[in-house]
Amino acid sequence: MADRLSRERRSWNMSRIRNKNTGPERQVRSILHRLGCRFRLKSAGRLPGTPDVVLRRHQSVVLVHGCFWHRHTGCKEATTPKSNVDSWMDKFAKNVARDRRTNSALMRLGWRVIVVWECELAHPHRLRSRLARLLKKRPIA
Ligand SMILES: [Zn+2]
After folding, report:
1. Ligand 1 center from residue 110 Cα (angstroms)
2. What does the H/E/C string look like for 70-112?
3. What is the tens place of the pLDDT at every residue in 32-80?
4. How far does the centroid of ligand 1 lie from the alpha carbon of residue 137, in Å?
5. 55 pairs with which residues across the strands?
6. What Å distances lie between residue 48 and 58, 86, 111, 131, CA to CA?
7. Ligand 1 centre from 118 Cα, in Å?
8. 20 CA to centre of ligand 1 in angstroms
9. Arithmetic mean of pLDDT over the chain
């Protein structure tokens, strides 16, 4: 059962990686849009880690991280599959190291990095307030 679930989760994640304009990234964009943030979709490619949203006016980038792949600390979504544990741990360690490198590269370039965890999308109002606070916007609906 655990393996079946992780397989499904894996293919779900892979489908998300193929199309960045669906699912969580899109939800985060729509929240930012409603906060009155303006951004273009094509400008991220030149930045480290290809951020999901680039908010030039705020000198900020938003990275939407899947809790499983990016190992959200303390999150119940950040499970470890029961088989091939070593190779999973290795993969996870590489992902976390890459995230760290990406963050520092972005910060060296003068960007503020805002990470949105996928589990936060279960509470869109809370996420909207957090983003509003960070970007000093009024959290109106
Ligand atoms: Zn999470």
Report:
1. 27
2. HCCCCCCCCCCCCCCHHHHHHHHHHHHHHHHHHHHHHHHCCCE
3. 999 999 887 766 678 999 999 999 999 999 999 999 999 999 999 999 9
4. 24
5. 60
6. 17, 28, 11, 21
7. 6
8. 19
9. 87
Cα angle value 65/68/69 (rounded, 5°): 65
Q: What's the 72 CA to ligand 1 centre distance in angstroms? A: 5
Which tokens sit at 12? 């779900």
Question: Whole-model pTM above 0.85?
Answer: no
Residue 84 Cα to ligand 1 middle (Å): 22
Which position has the token pair 């680039």? 54
Residue with tokens 């779900």: 12
45 alpha carbon to ligand 1 midpoint, in Å? 25
Q: What φ, ψ does residue 64 adopt, rounded to 5°?
A: -100, 115
Q: Are 107 and 113 in contact (CB under 8 A)?
A: yes
Closest Cα partner for 118 from 68, 51, 81? 68
Q: Ligand 1 center to residue 76 CA distance, Å? A: 7
